[in-house]
Structures are given as structure tokens and as C-alpha cells.
User: What shape does this take?
Amino acid sequence: MHFDALVYIGRFQPFHNSHLALLQQALAQAPKVVVVLGSAFSPRSTRNPFNVEERQQLIAASLGADVDRVYFVPMRDYYNGPRWSAAVLQAVTEALPKGVKVGLFGHYKDASSAYLDDFPTWPLVHTDNINGLNAADLRRQWFEDAGAISTFSSQLPPPVRDFLQTFAQTKAFTELLAEYNYLVDYRKAWSVAPYPPVFVTADAVVRCCEHVLLIQRGGLPGRGCWALPGGFLDQREQLAQASIRELMEETKLAVPDSTLHAALCDQALFDHPDRSTRGRTLTQAFYYQLPLSELPTIEAADDAQAARWVPISALKGMESQMFDDHFMILDRFIGLLAC
Assistant: This one.
């Protein structure tokens, strides 16, 4: 079957030789390829250490002249399958000329490849993995070797190899390595449990005078990221109680509990399996609209290194600084995105 363009979706964290070979295969089968770069606007994490600009530059440098036949489409994590696939479909349609014949290029690796079934209007051009390379394994080895790449450098295109060596000398890598080691110890502590743990947290979305209350995380994971006040559920409390307790502990919000209870206007569960680097974590978010004429005083406390009233108009520009899926939680209640 002839295609005018093929769509190749991935996070490419990092872009390795199998990715490059597959992309070259796609270019051999269609005059144009749309590379959809997933997790595009997330902050750096052990799962997504490289931002979308870095990944695009590395793919372009690895491809050479063939990059002129590639469209790059950044795509955020929506933590909602139907919404994500609709956004991919719309973005790809906008990137290509009207009336072109489009196919989806990829292979079924594991459960994370289920998205290949989400685009029935794009015939699947199935291909096999090459050399069995997996970016998650390369990332793990990179962190285990504290930034050294000697054990897997032959599996990387030269521009990626050079970039990883340089990046390993940066403050950003030092912070990622600390987070990686923290998460290794965290999972090890829970490894003795008789079953995989499922964590439960509660978060508070507090709106007042067209501002939202955020905290800056002082601890790992996500140190330095902006987040909603919140935390883990205690043994003898309900989720709404946990939301208010964590809110008060982290921000010392100068509002009586009774006012908060009266201001609660919505709540929602966020339970995507990949929403947290710590493991399977469910959070119930509570949305409070304070009917006040001025912003109450706040003070960062507990494990928050800062607390701030942020104008709603500024939130969209903070997406790449937001912890886990907290940007999408804000979008659920406030409507930050058009789609």
C-alpha cells in the first residue's frame, strides 16, 4: 500500500540506533514521516530526562540530510487515552497537506504499545524491533553507571553519544541521578510487601481572585517542580480531610477549615498508571473556590520550599515546571487547554 506520509510515535529517551534504523525504514517507505515526540512539555525526570527541543535536535543530527523529509510534532502527556489520541490525530492532520494518504509506523513492544490500536483511520505498517534495544534499559544503565556510557555507547548514534557525555557533567544530570537513587531505594523499601503497593494521595486545587495556590517541592522526587499542595493519606482520615491537612501543613493558608469546606465545589480521581514515578499512585483532587476579595496569606512549610499564588493566566506557561500530572489536574478544573 502506498502512503504519502507515515507517523512514527515515541518518546526517544534517548534516541538510539534501533530508533534511527526504524525511522530510516519509514523514510524508505514514504516520502514524508511525521515524528510525534511524546511527553513533550514534561519537566525533566528519570523517565523523561531530555526535553523536546533536545530530542528533536538529536534526531535531526542523527538523520542528516533526510531530516528535510521529517515533520516533528510535540505531544504532551494527557494521561487520558482518548484525549491523547484525538490530539495526536489533530496535530498530525494540521502538519500535513490536505488529502494525503497517512499510515502509522511501529511495532508492538509491550503494553505501552497499545496506542497503535487507537488510530483506526491510519493503516498500521508493522515493523519488527531491531536488535531488541529498549530506551528504558539504556536509561537505567546510564543512571546505574553514574552517567558513563561505555557499556552501551555502540548502541547510540554519534550525536546522541556526544550529548549524553556532555549532559552527564551538568547540574541537571546530578539532580536526575539523585532522583534515580532515591526511587531505587524507595522501591526497594516496598519490595518486601506481599503485593505491588498502590499509594493513595489527596491534592488541593485552591482558586481565589483568579489565582491558584501552588507549592514548590523541596524533596525528591520532583525537587524544584511546582505542584499542588497535597500528600499521602493517613491511616485514620478520609480523603477530603487529607486534602485540607496537607494544604495547611504545606502552605499555612490563613483560611478557616469551615471556609474551605464551604468552598469545595468539585473533586475528581486521577489514576493513570504512569502518572507518578514513585509507582502506582492514585490521587483524589479537591477543587476549592474561595469567595474572597483578596488573597489570603500563605507561608511555605513542611516539605514545600516555596508557596505562591499564581495567576491563572500564567499557568499554561508553567507546564514544563509542573510535577507529575498536576498541570492536567489544573486543566481538569480550570480549563487551561483548548483540547
